[in-house]
Queue: 2 jobs
Job 1
Amino acid sequence: MTGDKSRAGSAERQRDGAAMPAPPRARPGRPLRPAQLRAQASAWGFIAPVVAYLVAFYAYPLYRNIDLSIRTYTVASFVTGNAPYSGLANYSRIFRSPTFSPALVNTAVFTFVSIAFQFAIGLALAVFFYRRFRLSSLLRALFLIPWLLPLLVSASTWSWMLNSDSGIVNSFLQAIGAGPVDWLTSPHWSLAAVLIANVWIGIPFNLVIMYSGLQSISTDVFEAAAIDGANGWQRFWRVTFPLLRPVSAITLLLGFIYTLKVFDIIWIMTRGGPATSSTTLAIWSYQLGFGSLLPDFSSASAVGNVLIIIAVFFALIYIRARHRLEAT
Amino acid sequence: MKRRSWWLTALGVLFTAAMLFPVYWMINVSLTRTSDMRKSPPHLIPVDGTLEGYSAVLRQQLPYLGTSVLVALGTVIVTLALAAPAGYSLAKLRPKGGGALNFTLLIAQMIPAIVMTMGFYTVYIKLGILNSVWGLIIADSTIAVPFGVLIFTAFMSRIPDELVQAARIDGAGALRTFRSVIMPVSRNAVVTVSLFAFLWAWSDFLFANTLDSGGALQPITLGIYAYIGNNNQQWNAIMATAVVASVPAAVLLVLAQRYVAAGVTAGAVKD
């Protein structure tokens, strides 16, 4: 997606280490000539607003978040403005909390299971739509709808569909002779319920990306495989799938990062309950900070920072994968 | 291909119908009478349909819808104003530190919104912009700005350098070039970024619920949320509001499908 310029820039950055700014274009080691200085000044003029914005509305809130997590912040602190420094006490408290391990396990299960189903179904549909039949582009467009709907809308709809007494899903299950399931109110099923809704929402994203990944593969390759006598199954596993590997890696990583932060769906459907059965780290953080009349911002931001560390870990792998894709 | 494509089409229609069933169900429930709501098995089509849900929307939800339009448009303007110039600079002017900025934007995109809410909350309390539309616009724009810069950068680096050089030879400065040469040919990027900024701001629930839950002007997501909390029985009104809240997504999909696809694949697929 990025053009030649930024690709060259990223190659240079890799050579110099990721944290270093890109070197000047003029031969390195020499001071900038006045013309170059003027060019740099105008180049910076155009990015200055975004840089200021990032500092004010990303860096500063994040700094505040770290600050919150190493102090004991109470409702009174908002008024008086002072909160005693408490070091890593908030972190050790959340690690020892009985909610921590269910939240971590639920986050992992929710993320991995969501991704596995979204990706498998999305890829299968991409391969299906790649065969281009009458109405295929219209139907493919319609598939985008679940992804475009406000999450709150999807979550409310699924809540009603999965309602124990009046939901269509249980009516259907009863019609085929299966028992009614307390999707949202049983601790055994609540995570499955939010997973179903989340997989549904994520399928279009995977479909669209894998479809355009397929389109970027030259049709010659498929023709050559067909001439060599490969059947459809072999063509997929031996030709298509290996060629899709870079795009797949990126789709999966983006999926991980997006799924880690899912909040709306779970909050609307189960509020993380019953008990902690569908509580993820994002939900737990919200519950601590905003879920009760006695907000515990310090613990909430400590949980949030744990979530950031996990997200950034995957983000760095993603950026590496992207560079590798662009280098090919 | 022609001869056997009919069964592919049939299969495709079947898959699409299954996928869109929840959307159909939302519409069906929005037209169901309250007295039929708990019927078992439920009506599969709205027999004896009613518009009482929609009249409840008209009576109670219009201010929420208006606020959502305002917030979404505000977010689009903020996002474009910040992202387009930055994209131009990163694509064409080679600023020192541009690579580091790109890297920062990629990371910024990955930060969970739940973490941002707490930082924003403490900052907004101090600035006194908690529960204000402006505060919500700024918070919502953080979802779209990094994406916007990446889209503009990618798009603008495909504009031929000759075009920029020709403008310079004609005596245009960087600002003039940006306004009169770059922006007019970047219409597709503007549409893609605006569309996503609008949809994300329109759909936002988390920022609205934490930063604007006591505000005089609240967006439609909070309207639905209040419905769910208050009158658990009136599901036709809840679903009617949900249907109305889905209209922008549907309109944008019909009018701008290729831009949607372009935005989804940005960053994931090399072209």
Job 2
Amino acid sequence: MQPDDLAKALAPRLGDRLLGVETFVGTAGRVRFRPEAALDLFRAVRDELGFRHLSMVGGIDWVDHREVFYVAWSDDARQYVILSADLPADSPHIESATPVWESANWHEREAWELLDIGFDHHPDLRHLLMPDGYAFHPLLRSFKLHEPEELEVKQRSV
Amino acid sequence: MTAAPTVVKPGTTPAESYRLTGELPMVDQAAVPFIEIETVRAREFIPAAKEAFSAMIVEQGQSKVIRPTFNWAGRNSLFPLHWGLACCAIEFAAAFSARFDAERFGIVPRSSPRQCDLMIVNGTVTWKVAHKLITLYEQMPEPKWVIAMGNCATGGGPFRTAYSVVPGVDKLVPVDIYIAGCPPRPEAMIDGILKLETLIRERKE
């Protein structure tokens, strides 16, 4: 499957919410879409194009905006496809992919806690890698690494 | 009752004597005080032994009997709770295998904190696991000791500034012995345990 095939199949479904399909080495292509088209695009990609397995969900903090991307795998085509959307930096949120791909659950929890990307209607948006109540989103550019000496950990009396 | 004196033939210690003569160090029968052994039932004997032991404590002072006895027993049967969090756990396992055989020091790794008096933290402690570590530490009965094994447990190691790593397990629990290395070899771990035994030997309360 080539980027042109993706564009031909997706354009009727998404219209102007499809921003473009680019070549991406090693994959079928990189689909850029508006965040409001998320669920429509996911369903089309899974049901019509056959990308049944969601391999990963990730994000990038570009400071002026935040990017979220999904990597899906097709067993028939033996190819990946990348779906990426730009979110505003002040309130980055997108519809959760869990109704389409169940495996998005933990990936989105990770993307939320590390990059502060909100996933609407996520069934269980809890911390995954960090303890509950961790107040930071450490993969953001604004996050400063601490020096251990600055940490004030209250020593437990035994 | 005094212990029977050992006849030290040619050498100066029993071991040397055994090496020189090939005979086990024998007890000199003439030096053993004659004790009339009376057959008593156990239920009569135990209170009598208790009474004799408490008399000895009063005589010699509690700190000279009880504490050294407990220290001796404690340091010769350390039961570590192992925290196999990272690659140090491989060295920990190697220390208990045939080549290094740490069990000859009386160390037996246990899997339940309630049976342990030593916690060996071998690996990178993350904030996610920190409260579980404290919980298990508090479940261990007193007296208890902690060994921070490897650079990660000592001070965070290469991840000391990371957002998810506790920079040293001493931020969470009091640590007695730090073992450096990334990871330390089994000899280093055994050396740390022997140093801990020295600590326990000098323990006063």
